[in-house]
Amino acid sequence: MSETVTVNLSGKPHQYKIEIGNNLLKECGSWAKSCLPKTAKRIAIISNRKVFSLYGEVVAESLKNEGFEVFIWKMGDGERFKSLSSLEKALEFFSRSGLTRSDVALALGGGVVGDLTGFAASIFLRGISFLQIPTTLLSMIDSSVGGKTGVNSAFGKNLIGTFHQPNGVLIDVATLQTLPRRELTAGFCEAVKQGAIANKILFNQTAEFLQNYSPSKFKKYFLDNEFLKDLQKLIAAQVGFKAQIVTNDERETIEREDSKSRKILNFGHTLAHALEKVTDYKYFKHGEAVGYGILAAGEIAKKVANFSQNELNLLNDVVNLTGNLPSCKNIKAENVIEAFAFDKKNVGDSLQWILLEEIGKPKIVMNKEIQPTVILEAVQTVLKK
Fold first, then answer.
1. Which pTM does this prediction carry?
2. Judging by DSSP bridges, how do beta strands 350-358 and 361-366 pair with one another?
3. Which is deepest, 141, 211, 257, 281, by most CB within 10 Å?
């Protein structure tokens, strides 16, 4: 039995559905048909070699069975391929495939594939329809929901992009059984982030799931029906929270500084984006960097937002349940702090930090309100872990 989360938006398409269930890929053709206008004839799939070797043929066959003409392009695997060069290749692929304004781009893969495909769809012919089939935990609960698209560049992560909402999202939890351990850890770090800013119910649900089902033994749990139910419920709860935030603030309004602003989804991302930049997007999985970002934001919040030591310890404990993070011991704190200047969360002349007053109570704080020594000490503390 699947679950559905609906995202309501003010613009067009004003609404789309996120289907969540087990073994859904074989029916993705009928799902796509239900999401798209009748004029859609061609679907251009962007994936990568690894994901396509696992799921591509099933997806392509199901789409063909519903009468779609299918075209396939396999981009490079990894954050460094989320680039302007890859974007140009994607646009060339759309053109070679003969896509028209009524046709569709489909992302089959993780966040890199989804962000690039969505961006390409948003600017090809000034915008074509777009479908998401995320295959990583992080992309399921985060990047596939909300319409943010973009690429990285020499001057920062995700500084070039658009808002382009999908026509639909299909989440098949069965794809997670082939996910490498590091990708699971990355996804669960993002889940902890969302729980921490959402409310104690989602935070505790996430913590309890990690206590019951260690990411290091994930594959064996897929034979357990209780695990599948718990996994589906957790993903639905995570997606539901993000959908609620997106509905309230679709385009991350610059002026908003309240606890329901879409900006709060950037909790943990200030340090994360800096870590990714100083390592040239080759060392960390995005969610791993977010894990460190959560820890740093917690350290700063203790001194700036009266975040209690007990809750900081709890936050650290739950991040630790996600699995081992790559060592940061060779990364210099000064280089990381310099990279903050390239962050897209800069507003005017100041970076905005998302901190916690308590679990489930986020707060937006301007960088100029925080002593530089507090930030430096927090970064140094985290890099030693």
1. 0.92
2. antiparallel
3. 141
